[in-house]
Amino acid sequence: MNVPRHIAIIMDGNGRWAEKRKMPRIYGHKAGVKATRRAIKSAIDLGIEYLTLYTFSHENWSRPKKEVDALMKLLQDVIRNETKELMDYNVKVRFIGNIEELPASVKEEVDKLTEKTKENTGLTLLIALNYGGRREIMDAVNKIIQHRKEPLKYENDFRSYLYAPDVPDPDLLIRTSGEVRVSNFLLWEIAYTEIWITKTLWPNFKKTHIIKAIQEYNQRERKFGGIG
Questions:
Q1: Which of 31, 51, 55, 76 could serve as a FRET partner for 131 with CA atoms 20 to 30 Å apart?
Q2: pLDDT tens-digit profile of 128-175?
Q3: Known catalytic residue: 90?
Q4: Topology annotation, domain 6-131+170-218
Q5: 45 part of the active site
């Protein structure tokens, strides 16, 4: 099986999972943490080099304050509780997005985890937090205005101003819950990414789904604008 070098996942369906069980939405997010743990372990087992998880978008701040506050508290707890296991698995964790805008307590945990895992050499786990694809492009343009006088000549010149310019574009984008949209995720980076969608809600997502996505990915011919 030809394993993609970089897989990105839009983790969708936590709220619906909870609502189906007549439970508050936060229970779905807590169940989603277990699925996230499975996805990370699966990526390690399969030899994937980069895994990017869409954890909290810039637009998610518009959700009810009670849910956002609960998500921030959950995120803080998860980072603190999962650090040892991430270290045991040799995972390097990086965060992409507007981290400076997060609550101070969350940013503190983010900075600690980033520093703690920075020398690890296994899976690189990118967590998209307070992230928006359009915002990333706007931030890149503002950096260019500040730092350059001459026009850009190559696409890689622009890439150098993105949140993680050294990370290769995703080969495969997985979206759960059956929604057919990219939701402002990695808009520059997924220009030629293969997309695989499953109706499975995120808390029910397992290693078998990743394998199925990779198997279908292997059946496709990536032409990158050419004719194959």
A1: 31
A2: 999 999 999 999 999 999 998 888 999 999 999 999 999 999 999 999
A3: no
A4: Undecaprenyl pyrophosphate synthetase (3.40.1180)
A5: no
